[in-house]
C-alpha cells in the first residue's frame, strides 16, 4: 500500500525537534531486520501479540561462492566463500511499489494483525520533508538503508549493496548527523553525507528509497491455534528433511565441511547468516511456550518438552559461538580456529533437530 505524503516543506533545523529514543530493554530481536522494524513500530503505538508467534521456522540453506574470490576467506572483507542461512524457497518479505507480500507479510497480517505500508521516495528533499514530519510528532522513521554506509558496521566503505532496514530517530544539526537504530545498536551516529550517499545508492540499486509504516487490521488472538501449530511443524519437517542438496540437513553437512577448512586456516572470518541462529532458537523456545497453551494430550506435551529442551541446548551452543566471535575481535586470546570449532559444535547438534520435529508432528 502507498501512503500519500502531504507535509509542509521543512529544513534541516526542524529535524532536530525529535527526542525519540528506544528503551533497549523493550526491544525484541528477531532474525530479520525488517520484521524487527515493523514489529517495533507497531508496539510503540499499542500492544501486539508475542513475536514468537511468527518464528517457529527451523531451516537451513547453504550457498557456495557467496563472495566470488579465489581464496576461501576474502582478504579484504574477511567473508568466507559460502553462506549459511535460513532457507528461503519463496518470497520472505517481497517489497513492491504499493505493497509487501511473502511468507512473513502473511504471518504478520494473520497472526499479529499488522499490514505494511510502503512509502517510496526518489527525491532526497521529499524524504527530508517526510522525516521532518515524523520527527515533529516524536515518531521514528523506518526505512531502507545499506550497511556499507553505517560506520559501526564492518561492511562500512568495504561492501556496498547490503540492504538493511533501520530506524532514524533523531537529527543533530550541530554535527549534521542522524541517530540510527536497529536490532543490534541504538543511537548510532550516521553523517548526513552517508545518508545522502545511501539514498543515491538505493536509487541506483533498485530505483527507489522506501520508508515503511504499519497499520492494524483486525484483532488477532494472543494464542497459537492448533492449525497454526500444525502449519509450523509441517513446514519445519519439510525444510529439515528435504532432499535438496543446498537445504535442510544437506546444507548443515556442507557447512560442516566448509567450516573444517575455515578452522584449518585459523584466519579471522565472517560467514553471512550466522547471527540468525541464536535469535531463532530463543524465539522457538518461546514458540514452544505458546504452543503448550494449546496442546493438551500427554504425548503432545512430552514431545513439545523434548523439542524445547533441544532448542535451549542449541541456543546455548550458538550463544557460545556468538560470545567467542565477539571476543575474537578484541583479544588474541581467542583464535579464529576456536570460533570455527564452536560453529561446528552447534551445527553437529543441529543434525539432531529433525527427529524432535518429527516426534512432535506424530502427535498432532
Give the class from helix and strand content and strand pairing: alpha+beta
**Average residue-wise pLDDT:** 89
Order of helices and strands: HEEEEHEHEEEEHEHHHHHH
Biggest sheet character? 6 strands, antiparallel
* Helix residue percentage: 40-55%
Multimerization state: single chain
Description:
By secondary structure, this protein is an alpha+beta fold. 43% of the residues lie in helices and 15% in strands. The protein contains 10 helices and 10 strands. The strands form 3 sheets. A 6-stranded antiparallel β-sheet has the order 5-10-6-7-8-9, sandwiched between helices. The longest helix is centred in the last third of the chain and has 31 residues, at 298-328.
Summarize the structure.
The chain is an alpha+beta fold and 364 residues long. It has helices spanning 33-45, 103-112, 124-136, 192-206, 226-240, 248-265, 276-292, 298-328, 336-350, 353-361, and strands at 61-64, 82-85, 94-95, 100-101, 114-121, 141-146, 163-172, 177-181, 188-191, 209-216.
Secondary-structure topology with pairs:
Blueprint: H1 33-45, E1 61-64, E2 82-85, E3 94-95, E4 100-101, H2 103-112, E5 114-121, H3 124-136, E6 141-146, E7 163-172, E8 177-181, E9 188-191, H4 192-206, E10 209-216, H5 226-240, H6 248-265, H7 276-292, H8 298-328, H9 336-350, H10 353-361
Antiparallel strand pairs: 1-2, 3-4, 5-10, 6-7, 6-10, 7-8, 8-9
Helix pairs in contact: 5-10, 6-9, 7-8, 8-9, 8-10
Amino acid at each position: 500500500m502507498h501512503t500519500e505524503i502531504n507535509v509542509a516543506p521543512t529544513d534541516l533545523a526542524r529535524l532536530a525537534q525529535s527526542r525519540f529514543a528506544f528503551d533497549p530493554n523493550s526491544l525484541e530481536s528477531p532474525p530479520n531486520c525488517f520484521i524487527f522494524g515493523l514489529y517495533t513500530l507497531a508496539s510503540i503505538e499499542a500492544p501486539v501479540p508475542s513475536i514468537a508467534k511468527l518464528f517457529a521456522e527451523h531451516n537451513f540453506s547453504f550457498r557456495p561462492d557467496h563472495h566470488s574470490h579465489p581464496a576461501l576467506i576474502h582478504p579484504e572483507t574477511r567473508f568466507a566463500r559460502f553462506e549459511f542461512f535460513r532457507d528461503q524457497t519463496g518470497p520472505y518479505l517481497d517489497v513492491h511499489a504499493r505493497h509487501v507480500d511473502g511468507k512473513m507479510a502473511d504471518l504478520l497480517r494473520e497472526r499479529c494483525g499488522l499490514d505494511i505500508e510502503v512509502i517510496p521516495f526518489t527525491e532526497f528533499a521529499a524524504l527530508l520533508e517526510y522525516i521532518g514530519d515524523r520527527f515533529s510528532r516524536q515518531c521514528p522513521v523506518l526505512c531502507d538503508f545499506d550497511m556499507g554506509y553505517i560506520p559501526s558496521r564492518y561492511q562500512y566503505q568495504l561492501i556496498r549493496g547490503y540492504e538493511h532496514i533501520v530506524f532514524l530517530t533523531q537529527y543533530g544539526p550541530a554535527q549534521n548527523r542522524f541517530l540510527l537504530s536497529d536490532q543490534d545498536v541504538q543511537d548510532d551516529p550516521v553523517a548526513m553525507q552517508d545518508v545522502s550517499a545511501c539514498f543515491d545508492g538505493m536509487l541506483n540499486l533498485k530505483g527507489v528509497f522506501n520508508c515503511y509504516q504499519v497499520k492494524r487490521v483486525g484483532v488477532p488472538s494472543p494464542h497459537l491455534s492448533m492449525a497454526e501449530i500444525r502449519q509450523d511443524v509441517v513446514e519445519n519437517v519439510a525444510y529439515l528433511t528435504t532432499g535438496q542438496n543446498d537445504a535442510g540437513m544437506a546444507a548443515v553437512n556442507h557447512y560442516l565441511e566448509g567450516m573444517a577448512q575455515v578452522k584449518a586456516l585459523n584466519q579471522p572470518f565472517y560467514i553471512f547468516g550466522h547471527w540468525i541462529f541464536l535469535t531463532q532458537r530463543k524465539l522457538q523456545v518461546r514458540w514452544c511456550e505458546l504452543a503448550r497453551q494449546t496442546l493438551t494430550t500427554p504425548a503432545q506435551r512430552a514431545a513439545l518438552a523434548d523439542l524445547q529442551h533441544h532448542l535451549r541446548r542449541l541456543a546455548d551452543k550458538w550463544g557460545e559461538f556468538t560470545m567467542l566471535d565477539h571476543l575474537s575481535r578484541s583479544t588474541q586470546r581467542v583464535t579464529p580456529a576456536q570460533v570455527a570449532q564452536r560453529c561446528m559444535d552447534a551445527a553437529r547438534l543441529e543434525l539432531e533437530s529433525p527427529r524432535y520435529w518429527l516426534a512432535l508432528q506424530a502427535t498432532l
